[in-house]
Amino acid sequence: MTMATDTLPFEVKKLIADHVDLETLRQLRLASKTWAVVGLDLLLLPSFSIRSYARDIPRLLQIGNHPELSQRAARIVRSVVFQTFDWEPDILRKILTNRHIAVSNWEDNDFVPTRAEQYALDELDAFIEQRKLDEIVRNNRGSLEAAFRVVPQLNTIVIACENDFKDPLLRKVWSEFSLETYRYNLFQMGEVMCTASLAGLTIEHLSHQAATGAMFGPVGRNPNKLAFCSAATSLKSLDYNITELQLNFELGEMFSMPLKTYLLSMPLLEELSLKFNTLHPVGISFLSSVTFPNLHSLTLNGVNFRTEILFSFLERHKYSLKRLRFKNASIIEPDQSWKTYLERIKEMLGGQLEKFEISGTLRSKGEEDIAWFFWPIYEPDWSESDEGAKALLRPVGWSRKDVEDYVIRGGVSPIENEPNVADIFT
């Protein structure tokens, strides 16, 4: 770096830094103190990722101790993404070594790995050792609280479930069997939200991509769950992806009441998205007597509808709802169908809604079990979906933009002679 380039105006240096790759930016920052300052903003993103408590929380604390980085972190960082802790890596190891034989619960057995399997085991064993270190840091709430204080503008928490493995075989096993590994009786979401509250943060947006049945035990028996209800009062958006495949999981009141308790603690909700990956669709009793005055977006995925509960909820929110989506849902009353549902939604909300979607597998269980499959027209964030565009090229009746047109804009009723795919999904 020449003296001439070092004397460039700050604005020019900023333009240069904006147009180089990350490695070049790192080299530029080593050239001088003035170049180091130029690249600071670009090295901090609005979202900070915590994949390992033992590695990433100390990293955030170090940023807080830096005189210049700390100021920028306090100004820039708005969200923190945690990699989920609610799965058991030892179970994944058993699955990797047992996947070729029939076992009821992935019991231990004599196993001689191939070379490819040994590479996968080496990476997984290293991950298990790292998890032990992470557990030590996770159990020290003070370190996470101190890290949260570094980012006082934080308003979004995401608990993600990503396939971070490098080995191809391990990535494949995780993608096929990961749902079997969610057996930890943790409540990471509660721990994180409570600690954020202790740090004086106001969390407005919460997304959990891999919530488990453990979170739906009795609220009164778990101090983390009680504290979560207190910390969740400022939430404006909630996105739950709830997974539970254990046969002994109750889908009755034991499930719905804790979820209803959580929802009642969030009076400011504007966006609500609930997706259930369970052995059987979940009832919607958790929506009974629940009201969110500012709710404008609702997504329900993997549920069994009871007409009285659903339309009572929609009636209470008919003046605020703008976007409505039902996905992989079933109507369980024999005298109701998706055609009658769409007619009622059109009559109640047609003039209010801006976007509407039904997609996935939609069943109505009257005298004849009928199932339809429709492609989505919107992404989870309500942007236009590529699948929706592709659906326009499929046979007539399989593009569900016409359903939205019918409900919102008064188009012709599209639900006539739809292909029944019930036999495929039986």
Protein architecture, described:
By secondary structure, the protein is α/β, with parallel strands linked by helices. 41% of the residues lie in helices and 17% in strands. It is built from 18 helices and 13 strands. It has helices at 3-6, 10-18, 22-29, 33-38, 40-43, 53-65, 69-76, 89-98, 115-138, 141-149, 168-177, 188-198, 223-231, 253-264, 307-316, 338-349, 386-391, 401-409, and strands at 47-50, 79-83, 156-160, 205-212, 237-244, 271-278, 282-283, 297-301, 303-305, 323-327, 330-331, 355-365, 369-374. Strands 1, 2, 3, 4, 5, 6, 7, 8, 9, 10, 11, 12 and 13 form a 13-stranded mixed sheet that branches. The chain is globular and about 75 Å long. The model is unreliable at 247-253 and 393-398 (pLDDT under 50).
Indicate the structural class: alpha/beta
Distance between the termini: 68 Å
Tell me the strand percentage band. Answer: 15-25%
- The number of helical elements comes to 18
Rg computed from alpha carbons, rounded to a whole number of angstroms: 25 Å
Low-confidence stretches: 247-253, 393-398
Q: Mean of the pLDDT scores?
A: 82
Helix content: 40-55%
How many runs of DSSP E, i.e. beta strands? 13
| Main beta-sheet strand count, sense and barrel state | 13 strands, mixed
- Which word captures the global form? globular
